[in-house]
Amino acid sequence: MPVPFTADDTTRLWDTFDQVVADGAAPGGVLAYGTTTTSPHFLSAGKVAPECGDAEPGRDTLYDIASLTKVVATWPLLGQALEAGLLDLDAPIRDFLPPMNGETPSGEATVRRLIAHTSGLRASTRLDHYRGSDLLLHELLCREPLEDSPGRHRYINRGYILLGLALSHIHGRPLDQLAEALWQRLGMDATVYGPVARTPKVAPTEQRIPGAPRIWGAPHDDNAGLLGGIAGHAGVFSTPTDLAVYAQQLLAAHADGDRHGLGEWLHASLVPQAPIEPGLDRGLSWILAAGGRVAYHHGFTGTSLYLAPDTGRYLVICTNAIYGGNARTKIAPLRALALKTISAT
């Protein structure tokens, strides 16, 4: 049976969340939490942003989820493609991209290594450096030399850009259309690749140039922006409600059998692929903690998604903490408590 959150759990989460917002780590945000057998609960704090007036964040506020795109779009689509026999985890990514001529050292990275951030590809991704080239993006990426020996963990966005391009190629459809079809089947009606309209229900992110408007409705990630907002590593906007629905679907599939091709894929993804640091391993996309009992991922803008399959619990953090600068340091206390809470048995 799923283990519900206790009153002490929610009190500690609320107190820390409220303090983080009061300290200026984010204009505001929403926590969503629950189990596979209960309706989601929501805690909100602060305002959406000064640009949105008195609008308070709620369960339907749309957030740029940044690198949560990896586990909300690319990862489930990869699982479905593997189940359909369209991909092979241990084959090089070049096998699933349009034909290329010449040597492609980065194209020899296997699908598994790209998913697990152990490919050895260049960690820095600057798609603006490719402006004016006659080659297609997948070939430009694959022709790049490796920066490290394969096998060591190093977080690499360009691997997920390649995975997104591969998904589009093997299906013959754009990545956003593939993702939209998946989200509709899962009941995630508000989740979408950006850009989206600027409204008080959409959380603005960072101001890049003093005096200029903030990024609002467009992806914060520069490389996703250069790809029209549609990429395998970033670009998705979602709500606390939709992320709660997604978490419930994944946990239910893990517990009760396959749903939409995700049950066995989540099982496989909870197997450690490489150590990150003591106590943390990288699975397939997900970070694994608490001896593999918890899987989670962060988004650079200030979002997080935590799953505890053994207890049937999930926790979602939606903030636009990047509004005031580096989100990772400012909301670290909230993320640390979220991991501690979800890891409890």
From TrEMBL:
Protein name from the UniProt record: Serine hydrolase domain-containing protein
Signal peptide: none
EC number(s) on file: 3.-.-.-
Natural source organism: Streptomyces longisporoflavus
UniProt keyword annotations, A-Z: Hydrolase
A Pfam entry, by short name: Beta-lactamase
Entry GO MF terms: hydrolase activity
Cited InterPro entries: Beta-lactam-related, Beta-lactam/transpept-like, Diverse_Enzym_Activities
Domain Beta-lactamase-related span(s) in chain numbering: 16-339
Enzyme class: hydrolase
